[in-house]
Amino acid sequence: MAAESEQPRLEEAIALFRQAYERQMQGELEEAIRLYQRSIAVCPTAEGHTFLGWTYSFQGRWDDAIEECLKAIAVDPTFGNPYNDIGAYLIELDRLEEAISWFQKALHAPRYESYCFPHFNLGRVYERKKRFGRALQHYRSALAENPQHQGAYQAVRRLQSMLN
């Protein structure tokens, strides 16, 4: 918990973060980047760095995105999102073997709201590596975590039909 003297800074950072997220969702990436950077300057948070990295990924700036996620982990190593995001960016860079350990770290992060994502992403990695049984296992785990995850549902059906 932030000390009382830090509370106003944290509240300002959160307000800037929310504005940045809105801009990002509207496709205003440069403005989102500017607002995330301001939020981080006021009070660095794991969320600020992670979402700034996510915005960079929308621009194909994979190295910048990974760098922000590493900063997020330095701020709060319990936050699961940046581990998963690094793995996802490594998939985009076709660095599949490196991605696996990041997804495993995401699965063990205590502060993470959606473990379906690292399972789904591990499924993607193993499917690309033609390890279909392992891929199916992770897609099923993703679906168990979130029965509404359409990508996991489609992947399970696709692999089941392929393996039968």
Give an overview of the whole structure:
The protein is built from nine helices and no strands. With 164 residues, it is an all-alpha fold. The N and C termini lie far apart (52 Å). The mean pLDDT is 95.
How would you summarize the topology of this molecule?
Blueprint: H1 7-25, H2 29-42, H3 46-58, H4 62-75, H5 81-92, H6 96-108, H7 116-128, H8 132-145, H9 150-163
Q: In angstroms, what separates the terminal alpha carbons? A: 52 Å
Integer average pLDDT: 95
- The helicity comes to over 70%
The proportion of strand residues reads under 5%
In short:
The protein is mostly helical.
Supply database-style keywords:
164 residues, elongated
